[in-house]
Amino acid sequence: MAEVENTPETPRESAGSPVEAPEVESVPEIDSTPPTGTEGPSLDDLRAEVEQASSALRTSEDLRQQLNTQLDDAEARVKAAEVALERERAARRHGLPDELMPFLRGETAEELATEAATLAKYADARTSGLGMGGLDPNDSNSGGIVGRIIRKSREL
What we know:
Elements (H helix, E strand, L loop, with lengths): L42 H51 L15 H19 L17 H11 L1
């Protein structure tokens, strides 16, 4: 062995004496072959296990795909319901009758509000203007004025 220097970390020894290493017991070697009669699983058993795992993986993948499809369908239904609700809100805000709601086009609240405002202008025109007000020929409270007007118009 090599000689040890006299350093502060090591005690001072005489320069001529070698340092002896402690004796280490030898480690017995371990036999890596399994003892007879306790062999591992057979190749057929391992193949069956791999096939089971593969089948389980395919099943889980199929299930994942089904769940993703169901999720996509549910998200589409939610989106359609939200658009229908916003369509109804826009129609109500602008005073549109239920019959005109299907004519509102758009996906966002802003688009539907713009469509509703445009339709509301024309829906109001239908209720005001010609044909509104005036005399009703079937009204008996008009004092006979309707009949006189009709007779005068026939004379002309």
